[in-house]
Design brief:
The protein is an all-alpha fold and 166 residues long. Helices cover 69% and strands 0% of the residues.
Length: 166
């Protein structure tokens, strides 16, 4: 039964990674080359801009790999997810700090999330909300995962088996 929760979590994680990559995919679908998309991400050509663009790509890859590892039940799924989560936070801080050139849609994750959630009636600040949801998903990945030598038993076994003292 735990595999159903793992698959659902994997779908959510891969969907978020896909949402992060949508502007890049749209640019590629519009006929731009990979080099043009990369130069659009790191428009200033500075080392800082290149690191932020590489951080976005690494975050997308880490979330995607974390989602696939979650579905497979691999022990390093929480690590991949939380590395992607840290990359997400760093990107949001870089954008908020003004390190990103305005107009780079792919890097403006918070603005994209707000544009998506406002029509749904969400009236709170969207950055803390999305980070809290991602943290909850990460904790669920941690709870359903096999880690620290648990010999295949997920932490959620306490939800389905009676305690020893009962």
């Amino acid at each position: 039964m735990i595999w159903v929760l793992r698959v659902l979590l994997a779908i959510v994680i891969v969907a978020y990674a896909t949402w992060l990559a949508l502007p890049l995919g749209a640019a590629l679908a519009a006929g731009q080359t990979v080099g043009q998309v990369w130069s659009g991400l790191a428009a200033t050509g500075s080392t800082e801009a290149l690191m932020i663009a590489a951080g976005l790509l690494a975050t997308i890859v880490l979330y995607g790999a974390g989602g696939l590892a979650t579905a497979a039940g691999w022990s390093w799924a929480p690590g991949l997810f939380f590395l992607g989560f840290m990359g997400d936070i760093v990107l949001r801080l870089a954008v908020a700090g003004g390190a990103v050139q305005p107009g780079t849609e792919a890097l403006e994750i918070g603005a994209r999330a707000e544009a998506m959630l406002r029509p749904l009636g969400v009236t709170v600040e969207t950055t803390p909300l999305t980070l809290a949801i991602l943290l909850a998903v990460g904790l669920a990945v941690l709870a359903t995962g096999v880690w620290r030598g648990q010999k295949g038993a997920a932490l959620t076994r306490v939800w389905t088996e009676p305690p020893l003292w009962a």
